[in-house]
Design a protein that fits this description.
This protein is an alpha/beta fold. The protein has 9 helices and 8 strands. The protein is globular. The structure holds D-xylitol-5-phosphate and zinc ion. D-xylitol-5-phosphate (DX5) binds next to strand 2, strand 8 and helix 8.
Length: 236
Amino acid sequence: MSRPAALSRLVSALPLIAPSMLKCDFANLHREVELLESSGAQLLHLDVMDGHFVPNLSYGPPVIKALRAVTSLPFDAHLMISDPARYLDDYLDAGCNLITVHIEAVPQPARLLRQIRDGGASPGLALNPGTPVESILPFLDECDLVLVMSVEPGFGGQKFMPASLDKVRRLAPLVGKDRLLSIDGGVDLDTISEASAAGASQFVVGSAIFDTSDYRQAIENLHLAAVGAAVSANSE
Ligand code: DX5
Ligand code: ZN
């Protein structure tokens, strides 16, 4: 599947539950991917941290490339790194389908977003809890995905920040239904309904999947809650 084709397939299957591979069992990465795939995951969210843009380290292109060889699930790379332009080719080469960079790391991202698209992937822009929506508006046309952080980036297992819902509400009509509006951090069975009612279409989930013993059940419950909340919000 070509990388832009991954976006159209994802958009036709909203809402999406994107397991965050930050909370998985790293000693058994291959098994985790197989388990997620057989549990109905529609894509994998790959959190890349550099110990500089965020105070934590995770993994990078070699690990992503190794995973690319064992699954055809689309890869949604979330680059929490300084100077992502410097490493873009490595992430393209590793087989990422969506590549999201932070507006705080690249305040003038137009060129980089175009390079991501020219490289065959879908470009995305993420914003931290303290960053206003206005900062990304001039670049929305260049994006296939917008990611609203609902925790400070860097760690899984944090508490969902309700203030992120206002951002989602503002962005939903601007992003529309042909692109992805993602929310990331503290999304669980309690918070997913509000996020879905606010207009998010992709839900990044770490703890609420990986801290359970049944990934399939967790993904299914989250998906049902997201669908239910979106349906009632649209019928109001
Ligand atoms: C945080 C990451 C998230 C996070 C999600 O910087 O971007 O993807 O790991 O994990 P939970 O769902 O536990 O907040
Ligand atoms: Zn993330």
